[in-house]
Structure prediction request, 666 residues.
Amino acid sequence: MGIRRFWKYLSVAKKLYIVIGVMALLIALELFTLYFAMNSLSSVRAFVAGESMWSKGQKDAVITLHKYARTRDPNFYTIFQENVRVPLGDSKARNALEQVPPDTAKAKEGLLEGKVHPDDIPGVISLVLRFHNFKHVKKALEIWREGDQMTQELIVMGKNLHTLIQRNAPESEIFKALNSVDDLNDRLTILEASFSYTLGEGSRWLENMLMVTLIFAVLIVEGTGLFLTISFSRNLSKGLSELNNAAHEVGEGRFDVHVPVRSGDELGQLAESINLMAHHLSSSIGERQQAEQASQLKSLFLANMSHEIRTPLAAIIGFSDLLKESHLDESERLQYVNIIHRTGEHLTRIINDILDLSKVEAGHLEMQSHPVNLNSLLEDLHILMVARVGDKPVHVEFNRRGIVPDMIRTDPLRLRQILTNIIGNAIKFTEQGYVRMTYEISGNNLLFTIKDTGVGISPSQRSNLFQAFSQIDNSVSRKYEGTGLGLVLSRRLAQMMGGDVVLEESEPGKGCTFSVKIALDIPKIHTVKVAPAPPKEVHLGKQLSSTSILLVDDVEDNRLLIQRMLAKRGANLTLATNGQEGLTKALEKEFDIILMDIQMPVMDGYTATRKLRQAGYSKPIIALTAHAMKDDRDRCLEAGCTDYLTKPVQVEALIQTILNYSMETI
Prediction:
């Protein structure tokens, strides 16, 4: 399949080059096969030549022993010892090649002693190492090994004969020794014949194999050429026919025609051009439809956001106006303040959902996984969900099914966000009955199942359930408020955590069942328990009385708000309206803490912080900004800020942060 695809996208010229290249490669393969054959046969020839030298040395040794017995001349025994050096050298080479790893240097030395020609030695070594497991070579090596053993017997017999002659033993004993030598010689002759026969068999087998290989290579060359020729001519004829038909269709005004692009050559390029031309002629209608759909989605987004943002803003502005009335009693004033605070938090959640969804869509949202106590997280979530029920007769329960680890590794913020959205929806759409969540281990996942007895979802509404700004009731008179972002955001977050959010079942009027699945990662927990550090005691009315704070913010309302918050707790505040003014005041007087806004005229917070650090300012600088993205936090810390807090200001978080850093500087 890969070769056909490769061939498909080649030009005609390149196809011809490929054909020539393939033919050249195959011819090179044939030449390599011939070279291999000649080299192997030459090695076999050298092996046979070495065997003949081995046989000659053994025969000469036997003859020399007979001459020694007949003449009693010690020189013949010396010649005998020289003759047996030939088979001994071959034995030395065989032992070196059978070592692990083979000792080729020692093998070469042994073959030289065995009188193998120096030019033939590499071939013999290569043959033994390359084909030692091949049956014919393996059998030849076994015969060679047996012949070496007999050579050792011959050497022992020669020494025995030499001893008999030296002590003038009777002729009968000498003849008996010579008869033993002759018997051994006969056995060696049979062994040498078997060795030669085995090598001959191997040589003939190798010749046959090489002949088959050459024939196969020739068939491949011819068959490949024939296949490429037929394939090319067939594709050319078919492509021209399809192009002709497509041109006729376009000429008749049928722009939905599509010519199959069967290759990447000139015919394929022409087919692509015809397809592109037909697509351009017909795409104007589709583009207009897409533009209209995009405009509708934009209008839907603006309408939803306008409604969802204006609704809490209207409450905030309205109740703020009511607070200006002088005849309000304390209970009414407190009620209006609580409404403004609750509505502001709701508006913050809407904006956070929009930001989170945009970050997920852009791929900029990162999971921050670390060990989390699942029980503690769910206990806190249960308290929050029970409070959200209010006066409705709805029972909220969390149940564990089976064994679930207490500690898991995950992003607790995102897991809480997912479960809050799903369970919160269940509570919102349930007027009475229950909202039940069970959690359990399912394979390699942690599974949460949320079941309620609410209004349910009809089959027609399911297709839009996980679409942005989609709600069960999209009418103007809808009963339930919301942006329609919760489910789609929850699903995207769950998918980033290795799972998903799925509507398992639903029936209008009877409720829904959702499942939330995330990948289960159980952290390695050390058994040694470390005693927690004692919490710092915080007395908000007293602890800031000795703290000098420089507040740098260009918005007067923000300065007034934070000044009131901190002044009530005894802080000593100095105000600056931009980064340049803050830089000047910080260098003129030493403060315990600086609260630094980021986006300001004249000089921004990043620049002011960098200049302070460059000037050697070491006291804590806390970024206090409406820039709430993760990249913004990183930029603040890189600029030299000690910590980072976002607006709208959470009083408790701000006070606690100031206390933490002010205590460290004491």
Notes: Confidence is low (pLDDT under 50) at residues 474-479, 526-540.
